[in-house]
């Protein structure tokens, strides 16, 4: 309460008057800086708590504005989406008939990619049957990143369920992967129930290496140079985003799609 009284006094009002505007407060503080020092002295913890709250609210407004601009950009790109190639034997969560397809390019060494997994899991939980997520490779951070990508795609070509388990295991234990490298990857392959010998053979194959190279070339084509990167029904998104961003974009797509539309009829990533 002391802080409120002092702030009102800064603008020259009695306690019964209306609250001062930010412009008025700024002017009053500039003209009477001694009152600010008095406010700190009178209630230091309350003063700094009020300052921190104001900073937090201002930061939230800035983030909301930036988020809104990015959402508008995606909604505009959805009118003329990119064509993203999706093979049947990729690591895929969700139904092929889902009206929304999110393609992610990621690196198993990427901390932002790890953090984004909880967002993607929440999307799948809240939009069951409406969203599918496709994992693609962009191993750019370390030599071990490419090795992990090779194991991942070798698994995806053999068993989608095991590939998804491997994906979740590596990101959940990213610190162990970073410390132990290939040894941890081998243990992870065994843990998901796959045959290590067959997976290692496939991981070294030209087919797997070509897939990873194609993923990297495709990401470059779309202007994705860092991880994570996304294509939401063909609209390109660079960087990690909160759940709210994806929720608003997904809801926009679902609202805009014609009734009974299939992924091929609605603006969507194309399969190949």
Structural commentary:
This protein is α+β, with helices and mostly antiparallel strands. 60% of the residues lie in helices and 9% in strands. The chain has 2 domains: 2-75, no CATH class; 83-256, Glutaredoxin (3-Layer(aba) Sandwich), CATH 3.40.30. It has a 5-stranded mixed beta sheet. The radius of gyration is 25 Å and the shape is globular.
Topology of this structure?
Blueprint: H1 2-10, H2 22-31, H3 33-42, H4 44-77, E1 91-93, E2 100-106, H5 111-126, E3 131-137, H6 143-158, H7 160-172, H8 174-180, H9 182-191, H10 196-203, H11 206-221, E4 229-232, E5 235-238, H12 243-256
Parallel strand pairs: 2-3
Antiparallel strand pairs: 1-3, 2-4, 4-5
Summarize the structure.
The chain is of the alpha+beta class. It is built from twelve helices and five strands.
Overall pLDDT metric: 83
Q: Quick one: how many beta strands?
A: 5
Taking all Cα atoms into account, the compactness measure Rg is: 25 Å
Structural class category: alpha+beta
């Amino acid at each position: 309460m002391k802080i409120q009284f002092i702030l009102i006094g800064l603008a020259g009002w009695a306690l019964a008057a209306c609250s001062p505007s930010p412009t008025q407060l700024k002017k009053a503080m500039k003209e009477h800086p001694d009152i600010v020092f008095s406010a700190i002295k009178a209630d230091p913890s309350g003063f700094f708590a009020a300052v921190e709250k104001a900073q937090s609210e201002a930061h939230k407004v800035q983030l909301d504005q930036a988020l809104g601009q990015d959402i508008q950009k995606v909604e505009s790109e959805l009118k003329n989406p990119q064509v993203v190639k999706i093979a049947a034997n990729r690591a895929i969560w969700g139904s092929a008939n889902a009206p929304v397809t999110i393609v992610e390019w990621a690196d198993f060494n990427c901390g932002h990619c790890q953090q984004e997994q909880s967002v993607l899991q929440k999307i799948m939980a809240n939009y069951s049957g409406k969203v599918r997520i496709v994992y693609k490779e962009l191993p750019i951070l370390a030599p071990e990143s490419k090795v992990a990508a090779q194991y991942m795609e070798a698994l995806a070509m053999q068993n989608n369920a095991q590939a998804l388990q491997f994906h979740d295991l590596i990101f959940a234990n990213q610190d162990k992967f970073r410390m132990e490298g290939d040894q941890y990857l081998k243990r992870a392959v065994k843990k998901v129930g796959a045959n290590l010998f067959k997976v290692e053979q496939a991981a070294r194959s030209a087919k797997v290496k070509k897939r990873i190279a194609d993923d990297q070339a495709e990401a470059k084509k779309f202007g994705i140079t860092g991880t994570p990167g996304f294509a939401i029904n063909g609209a390109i998104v660079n960087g990690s985003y909160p759940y709210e961003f994806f929720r608003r974009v997904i809801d926009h797509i679902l609202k805009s799609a014609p009734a009974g539309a299939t992924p091929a009829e609605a603006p969507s990533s194309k399969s190949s």
